[in-house]
Amino acid sequence: MHSFRYLLFLVLVVSCGARHSDLPKKRAWVKGADISWVTEMESAGMKFYTASGSERDPFVLMKELGMEVIRLRVWVDPINRWSGKEDVLAKAIRAKQHGFKLLINFHYSDFWADPGQQNPPAAWRNHSVVEMKEAIRLHTREILLALKEQGITPQWVQVGNETNDGMLWPLGKASVSMGNYAAFFQSGYDAVKSVDPSIQVMIHISNGFDQELFRWNLDGLKLHGAKWDLVGMSLYPSASNWAELNQQCFSNMQAIVSRYQTPVMVCEVGMPSDQPDACYSFLSDLMEKIDRMPQGQGLGVLYWEPQCYGNWKGYTLGAFDPSGRPTRAMQAFAR
User: If residue 70 lies in a helix (H) or strand (E), which one and from where to where?
Assistant: First the structure.
């Protein structure tokens, strides 16, 4: 009996002492969606349904589909109220009520800011560099303080959207004046930290597969003294090239973590809604690659406006079918 107990003790010691690397890896990254269009869609009478056809509040539906983060864009003075201050607050409040983490995305424009256009708000159009920095500071603080009054603190804030060639053109065009671009970004960074130092500030660049673009942009910012906490990227492959672009994106993420010691997040993805099987494969593979990043360095995957359907605004890269139900692509977020 004594020998048996001793053997049992040895088995328990060996089992309990298994190397941590042998244990199942706990997921340390988040899944989410930018659903900034949702209030405008609701205003237009659009409805959202489960795969079985039950109508749902879109925030409830996102939670049921496995989302943990809601991303919201902010425009300075849009021609209508959508993505302006009050609309952002309304959506952020709903996100908080349903337990989501929040990513706020400042475009510093009255409309879309992206690689092809980085237009200053109309009210800022004639600003000098000094005036532009102050406008960035005031606008950033205004939105974040308004959220704070509602008891809402975003986990992440983007200073600029897809700033491949800088922001607030022509003054902040990186290929013309990397110094101005860095100064504008730093003004936003400092404004965020002045509201709450715990908020993580993101630099966001598109074409996550393009390592050369990211190095040029980030090296330029660093050279001119700009700081950031994480790097965000967009990735919009096709059904025919997603595997190649995912691998290039993975290599880019690894290079960013190594070169700048900052984590990465794929904060925009999408694929044509009529190719749900390819999109599911794309997302599943991308998430597997995020999972392979060092602990805490791959922060998550967010779909851009997945709830879009019915050719809403001409956007065809959502993940809902024409009847307003999630396609198979969304099942990737249930993993």
Answer: strand 69-74
